[in-house]
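[step 3/7] fold_predict: job queued, chain A
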Amino acid sequence: MAVEPVEPVAPVELVVAKPDPTCGADHLCNGESCCTKLDVPAGSYPDKRAGKVDVGAFRLDKYELTVGRVRAWLEAGRPTPHDGAVIGMDSSGRPVTWSGAWRTQSAEHLQGWARYDTWSAGDPALPKNFIDWYTSAAVCAYAGGRLPTDAEWRYVAVGGEEDRPFPWGADAQTPDRAVFNCSGDGNPSCSLADILPVGSRPLGAGRWGHMDLAGSMFEWTLDAGGSEATVSRGGGFCYIGGIDRRAKKADTVANIRRDAPTTTSHMVGARCAFDVPGGGPGHALASR
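[step 4/7] structure written:
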């Protein structure tokens, strides 16, 4: 499902504050800040085509981008990076720059198909779906970070050199490990109730503690950003592998979508990454 680009609005200067301005003291997920960030050490993971892929140290949100965090960005005036700002380096080390022609979603366009719309559900700890790549990148920039590269996302999902088929290990996916197959509410039919607050399946945590890397939402990555082949990974709440819940299941990193950056879907959200000094090729947007 895609939305039409919205009309331009007056630019709001991006000012990155500390602590993360997308989370107030009362925006909690599982009793802690929904903006909790976890360190990811440098390392490598095996890739069938590229061989060993090296990844520098960085930080990654423990939780997927929540409705509450996106609302904080909206209430700040939908700030975006300035035209030409480097918003990160992709997996190949090439800079990804923000274009002033890119348009983020308005409050109206942040609403999605009512049957699965987390924006209007009333729970700020739900993962934000129906969010396009441009808006996801802008929210992460406002938070002081960026979208993770495809290599970084895969590295965390497989646990680095452990090369796990699922973030939690080799055990098969079950409803107590991931929000998938429309099993969130225990009813076999699919509904908004199957989308659970972020971090609802602690047994599914990855090697470094990150939640919901499988199921819940596909997550936009930085690679191919702004092109018709922008990447998201991880599997959605309707399934983990395949094109729908009847299809054959697949390892987490094999679940990939390539979409136009304006694409919005009930199964696509985001998660933010943050650079650490000397960590690697990523580039967090500087405050100004």
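[step 5/7] annotate
The CA atoms of residues 14 and 111 lie 23 Å apart.
Residues 133-142 form the longest helix (10 residues).
exit 0
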